[in-house]
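Q: Convert this sequence to C-alpha cells.
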Amino acid sequence: MSLRKKTLLILLVTFLLAIVAVLAVSLFIVKKGFSNLENEEMQRNMSRAVDTLQAKIDSMEALDRDWAIWDDTYQFIVDGNEDYIQSNLEVNDSFNNNQLNFMLYTNNDGQVVFAKAVDLNTREEIPVSESILALANDRQITQLDNEQTTKGVVMLPEGPVMIASVPILPNSGTPGPVRGALVFGCFLNTSQIEGMASITKLSTRVECLENPEAADLQQACAEITDQKPVYVNSMESGNIAAYTIIRDIRGQPAFVLQVDEPRSVQQQGDKTIFYLFISIVVMGVMLCLAAYLPLERFVISRIFRLGQQVSEVGQSAGQASAVTIEGRDEISHLAGDINGMLERLNNYQTDLKLTIESEQAQRQKLTQMNYSLENAQEKLALQSRELKAMSIHDDLTGLYNRRGFLALAEVQLNIAKRERQMLLLIYADVDDFKKINDTFGHLEGDKALKDIADLLVATARESDMIARLGGDEFVILASGIDEQSSDIFRQRLSEKLAVHNNQPGRKYMLSVSIGQVIFSAEYLSNLNEMIMKADRKMYEEKTSKKKQN
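A:
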C-alpha cells in the first residue's frame, strides 16, 4: 500500500470515529434539551387552558352576584310574581346572551322557588332535570351566608357543569337577612370547549375519569399527583398533549382536561439535529482536507518528488540535473546528499527552480492577502447591517421605533395605494402609565411597556407592523382589513389583557386606550395625517374612560 493510501485511510478512520463521538454527545444533549423545552411549553399551555376555564366561572359568578342583589329578586323569593319572570327570565335575553343552561332560585329551606333550563344549541326551553333540581338540597351550594359564594365545577349525570351560587340579598340599603340562593349553571359541552379552544388557540378535550376507551386518559390519571398536577405525553397522531385533573367544588376529582398541539418544538429539534449532522460532516471533511493537504505538501509530495527526480537523473544519459527539496528535515538532508553527488550538473537548474518557487510564494502571499481583505469586507458589511437594524428598532421592546415605522410604513402605504387595499391604523396609549412609574418605579414601568408590547404582538397578525413611537405610545398598521372585521383586534386585545390581569400576584391592572381608523385606497393621505386622526380617536376614548371613572 502506498504512503498516500495509508495516510488517507488513517485520516478517514479518525474522521469517522470523531463524527460518531461528537454526534452521539450532541444527540443526547440536543434531544434532551428540546424534550424539556417541549414539556415546559405544554405546562404553560395547560395553565392557559385552566385559567380560561376559571375566567368563565368567575364571569358567571360576577353576573350571578349582579342578579342576586336586586330588590326585585329579593321580593321574588317571597311572592314568585310573574312580572319578574316575564321581565327578566326570557330565554334569549337571560340565558342565550349570557350562555347559561339553567337558573335555580331557592329559599332558605332549600326549596326551589323557580327553575328554568335552556338548550343553548337550539335556543329553546327544555324541562329542568332532576339532577339540576337536586342541587337545591346541597347545603354547600344553597345554604349561604351574606359574604359567602360557591363557584366551580359539579359533575351531573348529563356531564360536567360550571356553577356559581350567590346569596340573595337586598340592594336598597335596608338591612335584611339572606332569603335564599341564586344558582347559575352552564354545561361544559362541545360549544363551551370550542370557545375555550378559540381563546387559547389550543385543541381542547374534556373526558370523564371513568372513560375505559381512552387509554391515554387512564395513563394520565395514574401519573398525575399533587406534586405533579400536569402530565405531558406524546400522541400517536404526532401531537403532544398535556393532561390535568379538574376538581369539583368539594375538591374531589371531576374530569380530565386535555390540550394538545403539533410537536413543532420536536420537529425543530429534529431539523436542528439534521443540520448539526450535516455541519459535522462538512467540518470533518474540511478538517481532513486541512490535515491531509499539509501532509501532502510537506511530506508525501516531497518524498514522491524526490524519488521522481532521482529516477529522472538516472534516465538523463549523462544530462546532469539536481533534486530540489526545500526544508531542514530528514527529507531535505537526503536531497542534500543526492545533490552533493550531482553538484556539478545542477547549477543552472537549481537557479531556475528557486526563481519559480519564489514566484509561487509571492502568489500564495497575494492569495492570502486577498482572502484576508475579503473577510474584512464581509465583517464590515455585517457590522453595517447590524447597526442599521439597531437604528430602526426600539431597545426596550424590540418593536420598530418611530424612525423604523415611518420608513417602512411609507412603503406599505404606497403598496396599498397601488393594490387598492384598505389600511387599518391603530394608535394605542397605556392608561395611567405615569401612575405605574410613580408608584412602582421606572423598572416596573419598563416591564409594563414590555408586557403591552408582548400582548400587541400576540394579538396582531404576523403581517401587521407594530412600533413603539415613544413613551407609552404604540401604533399598529394592518393591511387587507375590511370594516366588518376592524373591531376584532380590539376584542382580542381586551381578552388577552383580561387573561394577563387575572394572573396571580399582579400589583396593578394594565389597560390601553385605542384609536383606530380605516383608510380606503382612494382616501389614503400622508402617514402623519393618518397617525394624527388615530391619535385623536385614542384621546377621545381616554377622555371617555376618565369621565366614566
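The chain has 16 helices and 14 strands.
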